[in-house]
Amino acid sequence: MGEHRGFLGMIGCIDCMHWEWKNCPTAWKGQYSRGSAKPTIVLEAVASYDLWIWHAFFGLPGTLNDINVLDHSPVFDDIIQGQAPQVTFCFNENEYRLAYYLTDGIYPKWATFIQSITLPQGPKAALFAQHQEAVRKDVEQVFGVLQARFAIVKNPARFWDLDKIGKIMRACIILHNMIVEDERDGYGYTNVDISEFQ
């Protein structure tokens, strides 16, 4: 999947988005509010260059940062249980069997996370850092597209019930992926015989 973007063995990019919760119950506001004092709910997603969302984990309080969300997330359950998909790729004459994600600097230094180089020394390191940071933006682009497509996700959540809000997010992600799948290979107009319409 990552071959299209120059990263052999890459599964996708992982990051979190905060969705403002306008009608958060007063008793929970402290748990869901961060620096802006507005309560938010976190969506963790793994996305690819074609805007497909491969993994979504939603519902944790907005006070949690990406590492805390990752601790609760089921994204690595398959790897921990030894059920991860078999991936083999070669890079610099070394064979690797573990796929990886592109992340920003807050994530832990695990073998399955590839982060940018904070202070690149030399042109190769600078080029890698520039390319990694550009490709990592795929997941942020997905968040922007999700909010542009669905006004309910762009605007603050107005429901009281966290379960209902979770179902809304899940439905929006499913619809988003359906649209991406439909548009992935074009619109299918290439085989239309124009003479039929004359």
UniProtKB/TrEMBL annotation:
Q: What is this protein called?
A: Uncharacterized protein
Which source organism? Brassica carinata
Q: Which InterPro entries does the record match to this protein?
A: Harbinger_derived_prot
PANTHER family attached to this UniProt entry: OS07G0546750 PROTEIN (PTHR47150:SF5), OS12G0169200 PROTEIN (PTHR47150)
